[in-house]
UniProtKB/TrEMBL annotation:
It comes from Kwoniella newhampshirensis. Residues 18-226 form the NAD-dependent epimerase/dehydratase domain. The lineage of its organism: Eukaryota, Fungi, Dikarya, Basidiomycota, Agaricomycotina. Transmembrane segments: none annotated. It holds the Pfam family Epimerase. This is NAD-dependent epimerase/dehydratase domain-containing protein. Keywords: Carbohydrate metabolism, NADP.
Length: 362
């Protein structure tokens, strides 16, 4: 697939108000923009611990932006007061490197505050719905970091249904814990739930995140703006790690389309007795391809801005990620994948266009 498609993205009729947490973050901002452009007659409640952007929308019936810490009960409840929330995208969180470096913070945000949001969505549904009404659709945004263990190394090809969940990081454990809660709320019929595990999303704009995979975007983002970038997994351009440590990535546009589809797709996509977790499709990208894409889209001189400095903490986390996953089951469910040959280059092209747009606005 060369570009994501949007024709299938139709909200179930009962979905009139959708809450997006983490709406001030990278993926959350893109998701809110897509929802605003696709669904003209719904209300979006965009929330984050930092003030979420309003994307130029001042009509609070279309977009209500709320700065709230979801770890604080009163702030969480305030989001739902006076609303009837029919859909939730739970995106807020602390990224992998951050959760590994700060154990209590990772659990407080990635588990405790996420569980609060799940529980409160159920409480809200109980107080706003009548018997037989369709339940709110709850999409929890997880990560492929739930996989790890001996069958998930950079050289491995993971067939999801044959692969146990053995996370290799606290972040992965936290996402797994939440997936189980989300599954159980669905199994009990409390909410209509789905978890979507994202691959590494490229290219992330702005400042580097605390994700261990942050350098994948950084190797493009920083040099294209004349700034040095560190490649933490190799000591030079000749290092075999540039070929031996592939990453499983997806273009931002494709990921965001797939997250939106997770709310639109029928619950019957999950078979009887199956789990409720979905691997968002990705493509295999070797670090050398990233460096080559930098040269192709930015020019050979940009290579001098890449500094090869191995960082064992980053390598240790990256070694727990598989380089390739089987997308088959998830493509059948209506999720889309980038083209293996052109996908990463298109992600770089999207990012260059964003930079050009920003430059023309200043
Ligand atoms: N970007 C990726 O490559 C990637 C890959 C796998 C999974 N994910 C998952 O996707 C989701 C979005 O990722 P992202 O890249 O946009 O991350 P991000 O860091 O840009 O956004 C996360 C947002 O959560 C907010 N947040 C943190 N603590 C909060 C709290 N207590 N209350 C309210 N908001 C809080 C942050 O302010 C931030 O804006 C996350 O759950 C992440 O784990 C992302």
């Amino acid at each position: 697939m060369v570009a994501p498609t949007y024709d299938a993205l139709k909200l179930p009729p009962h979905v009139k108000t959708v809450l997006v947490s983490g709406a001030g973050g990278f993926v959350g901002q893109q998701l809110v923009q897509l929802l605003l452009s696709l669904f003209k007659d719904i209300k979006i409640i965009a929330t984050d611990i930092v003030e979420p952007p309003n994307h130029g929308i001042t009509d609070s019936k279309r977009l209500r932006c709320v700065k709230a810490d979801l770890g604080k009960e009163a702030e969480l409840k305030g989001l739902f007061d006076g609303e009837k929330v029919d859909g939730v995208f739970a995106l807020h969180g602390v990224m992998s490197g951050g959760a590994e470096a700060n154990f209590p913070l990772g659990y407080a945000v990635n588990v405790d505050s996420n569980l609060n949001l799940l529980k409160y969505t159920h409480t809200h549904a109980q107080s706003t719905l009548s018997e037989g009404d369709p339940r709110p659709i709850y999409v929890f945004v997880s990560s492929l970091a739930v996989y790890g263990g001996p069958k998930c190394r950079p050289q491995d090809y993971v067939v999801p249904k044959d692969t146990p969940i053995i996370p290799g990081s606290s972040y992965g454990v936290q996402k797994t814990i939440m997936e189980l809660y989300v599954y159980d709320y669905g199994r009990k019929g409390y909410l209509n739930t789905r978890s979507v595990r994202l691959p590494t999303v490229a290219i992330r704009p702005g400042a580097p995140s605390s994700a261990a995979s942050s350098f994948i975007s950084g190797l493009i983002r920083e040099p294209l703006q004349g700034v040095e970038a560190i490649c933490p997994i190799a000591s030079s351009l000749d290092d075999p790690a540039l070929d031996d440590m592939p990453f499983w990535c997806s273009r931002t546009k494709t990921v965001v389309r797939n997250i939106a589809w997770a709310l639109c797709m029928p619950e019957s996509n999950f078979g009887e007795g199956e789990g409720r977790s979905i691997n968002i499709p990705g493509i295999k990208v070797r670090p050398r391809q990233i460096v080559e894409a930098l040269v192709e889209h930015g020019g050979k001189d940009k290579l001098s801005l890449v500094k090869f400095q191995k960082d064992q903490a980053v390598i240790n986390i990256c070694k727990t990620w598989a380089g390739e996953y089987d997308n088959t089951d998830f493509l059948k469910m209506g999720f889309e994948a980038d083209d293996t040959e052109t996908g990463f280059g298109l992600a770089v092209k999207d990012f260059k266009e964003e930079l050009a747009k920003e430059a023309s606005q200043t």
